[in-house]
Amino acid sequence: MQIIESILQMQEISNKWDRGKKIGFVPTMGYFHQGHLSLVAEANRQCDTTVVSIFVNPSQFGPNEDFTSYPRDLQRDLELLKKYRVDYVFHPSPQQIYPEPYRTWVNVEGLSSILCGASRPGHFRGVATIILKLTNLIKPNLMFMGEKDFQQVTVLKTMLKDLNCNTRIVSCPIVREDDGLAMSSRNIYLNPEQRKQALCLYQTIKESQTLYKQGLKDVSLLKNRAKEIIESSGGKIDYISFVDSNSLQEPTVADEDTRIMLAVYIGKTRLIDNALLKA
Amino acid sequence: MQIIESILQMQEISNKWDRGKKIGFVPTMGYFHQGHLSLVAEANRQCDTTVVSIFVNPSQFGPNEDFTSYPRDLQRDLELLKKYRVDYVFHPSPQQIYPEPYRTWVNVEGLSSILCGASRPGHFRGVATIILKLTNLIKPNLMFMGEKDFQQVTVLKTMLKDLNCNTRIVSCPIVREDDGLAMSSRNIYLNPEQRKQALCLYQTIKESQTLYKQGLKDVSLLKNRAKEIIESSGGKIDYISFVDSNSLQEPTVADEDTRIMLAVYIGKTRLIDNALLKA
């Protein structure tokens, strides 16, 4: 496992990738949980070479968001990666990634301004730009991303297709704690009481799936019930949306492609989760 | 010389480029003049393989601009290319380049909203996006562009550097008619009288260079004199600017990096030209 901190060195390596080999890339912001590690395992399964990047990307955080407090622990992350076949860990500095004056930004219109994009203006611009840069630096065949950030995966698939990039995204299932809470680096912000409250996201998903299975397809009724569960547990709703998995547009009647998308504040911590209604 | 109309076919070819060979790319909108052909000749000199693209890019034209009337003559262009060593001509359809729903755009902030960007909102967004797409499809080592579009070259050099692309731009000198008019596909819009008026751009450049050589460094005085020449010849000024060749910012006192930038309407035809003051 080679740790690379220089973008020049990364480019030298990726310019010489053996074309007969499949290169897998797992972009991360570090502070690994089983969700991240499941992506590394999947890259190992599908690819000959695995590259993991660890970079807390400043440009995807808003001015009042948690960039400085976002959890970081490089040594722990590297230790966790030892159980996998990771060929390269790319860990550049923000100064190398965004040298002054940095001017170029990628925007995926329509998909970036709804849901999480409505609450976090500029977030997906930052995500799209960093992923395009990392894709150019690493030149992977496959990129592995978790479905917890479902909108992110949709935005990035669209970007790679629109810009004629050679990289394809493999999206992998959400990994959950035993009680159902979706794993997230931000879960460490929760105190014990909030940790219990945080279950309301998964409860809402399960209840919505049950109602759908029982024949309830009216999106406004599904949304009312979801709202009740979140609010009765003390969560503050950022959004509850039922969307088409491809377009991210909200239908009035749910079908087998409809996905429940949730963003909820538990205390000051914003958590997201999502699932197909047709479980 | 192989003509390629399919982006899939172009990708298949570029995915197999021999890494020991230098790939040169000349992006054009066709309707060749000696300026274009000088770029092809330079690509031939510096590279092993030369790819020329011919694509009138709709996204860089404003709603009231000349996209539909922009001159096109593919057969004549292909005939002209026969005098050079052109391995591939890439000529995709707009539908292939911008399949519906197309959503992803690249913006080079700061540099895109001044000069031509101020008169043509969205122009450089369209230019940056198409060049990034073509770069991804063709994967050249070197891209050859004319300095007549000096701002475009600056925007694109910035984009390729910011996005960590492997392609480097080689900018080539402006090619002029015998009387000094910078070659442009849009020169065919000029009637004989306008063709004479159009010389005012070159005359302004020459006069500014002479004044600079004589010791006049005050940008506002240089600008006043340039304005007089254009207006007395019947041209309508879009902008006259004296800018630093790297930042495109206007200094108050000219130096050896200062460049005169002109955009002038001759009748309904908008012409641009530029040159270093230090000729």
Explain this structure:
The structure is a homodimer of 279-residue chains. With 279 residues, chain A is an alpha/beta fold. Chain A has 2 domains: 2-172, Rossmann fold (3-Layer(aba) Sandwich); 185-274, Pantoate--beta-alanine Ligase, Chain: A,domain 2, CATH 3.30.1300.10. A 6-stranded parallel β-sheet of chain A has the order 1-4-3-2-6-7, sandwiched between helices. In chain A, strands 8-9-10 form a 3-stranded antiparallel β-sheet. Chain A has helices at residues 7-14, 34-46, 74-81, 94-97, 116-119, 123-138, 150-162, 192-197, 200-213, 219-232, and strands at 2-4, 23-28, 49-54, 88-90, 104-108, 142-146, 168-172, 236-244, 258-266, 269-276. Chain A binds chain B through residues 7, 11, 15-16, 19, 101-111, 128-129, 132-133, 136-137, 158-159, 162-166, and chain B through 7, 11, 15-16, 19, 101-111, 128-129, 132-133, 136-137, 158-159, 162-166. Strand 5 of chain A pairs antiparallel with strand 5 (104-108) of chain B, so a sheet runs across the interface.
